[in-house]
Design goal:
Number of strands: 14
Number of domains: 2
Strand content: 15-25%
CATH architecture of the largest domain: 3-Layer(aba) Sandwich
CATH topology of the largest domain: D-Maltodextrin-Binding Protein, domain 2
CATH class of the largest domain: Alpha Beta
Structural class: alpha/beta
Number of helices: 15
Strand order of the largest sheet: 2-1-3-11-4-8-6-7
């Protein structure tokens, strides 16, 4: 098992590279092609970047003939790249719009894993020995709509009586994504669910007009890694990132109050509860949202991250097969174990079977690439 440190190192390497340049289950190693001869390129969401990096390392031992390069450029960039035909697959936590489906002509989204978003913070006076902050639902919205401006605001101290004396009279810097982001879409969907005022006046999506920017106390960071770095480097700040970025970088993150009124941590169990809340809510496009579920133990800011690819390939059927073999492997138990170790939740069996069925419908030159997947 590769360490989380190696995963994050791989993520940073991919990020630096980007900055510089702007079949069946358990596929076996191929003896027919020289190592690395099939180049598969992907780009998109940073939400799943740690697990995609981990899987990329691991898959070298499964099929050495395949070289996979995934660049974390944000869900918006990934969707544009797959529509423009500059990548073989995209990663996105943001759902395709009808216009994007039309522009891409034959795109399909496939759930890969689910992840939790957490609120990381860097507050003067709080140490690693202190219990985590607690954010109620109104506080979560208030920080980002600009109505809660300081860390010793009565709403925050009421949530945190044991820490009230340590919370400073300091302005809150609210960090958000600066790029089009599925992480932002998930977060703003949650805020819209909590607050009708937010839904009416700000809304949800990969990017929004942030009230905290207008108030002068909001800053942006590119990618989950950019938000994490901004919070680490900005005293008295708070931001939203996928859980693994908080864990790997040892950044404190808050407990949250969910829709049922329960105060809870982001764990595998609370993420699984959120998935269960929406298990029967998949659209024909195989998409759903996991935000603000009603379950007593459901983490409120959660979402699936999706692989996006074309379903009708022409030419290079070997690449098409190798890509499907790789995705099929990501649904096996060894791959799922790696995802779980990084804090992601793997697909329920009912969702996994739907993904395999959809993958079996991918064609190249008019013939199914791997028809047995759905059987």
């Amino acid at each position: 098992m590769l360490s989380i440190r190696r995963v994050i190192l791989g993520s940073l390497i991919l990020g630096l590279a980007l900055s510089a340049c702007g079949g069946g289950s358990g596929a076996q190693p191929s003896g027919d092609l020289p190592g690395g001869s099939v180049q598969i390129n992907g780009a998109g969401a940073t939400f799943p970047l740690p697990i995609y990096t981990e899987w990329t390392y691991a898959y070298q031992d499964v099929d050495p003939s395949v070289s996979i390069n995934y660049q974390g450029i944000g869900s918006g960039g990934g969707k544009k790249a797959i529509i423009d035909g500059t990548v073989d697959f995209a990663g996105s936590d943001s759902l395709l719009t009808q216009d994007e489906y039309a522009a891409g002509k034959d795109l399909q989204m496939y759930p890969a894993v689910a992840g939790a978003e957490v609120m990381i913070y860097n507050v003067d006076g709080l140490t690693a020995d202190d219990p985590p902050l607690i954010f109620s639902r109104d506080v979560l919205v208030g920080i980002y709509d600009g109505s809660i401006k300081t860390w010793n605001d009565p709403a925050i101290t009421a949530d945190n009586p044991d820490l009230a004396s340590k919370l400073p009279n300091a302005s809150i810097t609210a960090v958000h994504r600066s790029d089009g982001s599925g992480t932002t879409e998930i977060f703003t969907r949650t805020l819209s669910s909590i607050s009708q005022d937010w839904a009416d006046n700000v809304g949800s999506g990969p990017s929004v007009q942030w009230p905290v920017d207008k108030a002068g106390n909001g800053i942006g960071g590119k990618g989950n890694q950019g938000v994490a770095a901004a919070v680490q480097n900005t005293p008295n700040s708070v931001g939203y990132v996928e859980l693994s970025y908080a864990v790997s970088n040892k950044i404190a993150y808050a407990q949250l109050q969910n829709k049922a009124g329960t105060t809870l941590n982001a764990t595998a169990e609370t993420l699984q509860s959120a998935m269960a809340d929406f298990a029967d809510a998949f659209t024909p496009e195989l998409t759903t949202v996991l935000v603000d579920g009603p379950g007593a133990q459901s983490w409120p800011i959660a979402g699936y991250t999706y692989l996006v690819l074309h379903t009708q390939w022409s030419g290079d059927c070997v690449k098409a097969q190798k890509l499907l073999e790789y995705i099929d492997w990501t649904l096996t138990d060894p791959a799922a174990k790696r995802a779980s170790d990084l804090g992601y939740a793997t697909l329920p069996d009912s969702v996994r079977s739907q993904v395999l069925d959809k993958l079996s419908q991918v064609t190249c030159e008019g013939s199914a690439v791997m028809p047995a997947l759905g059987n």
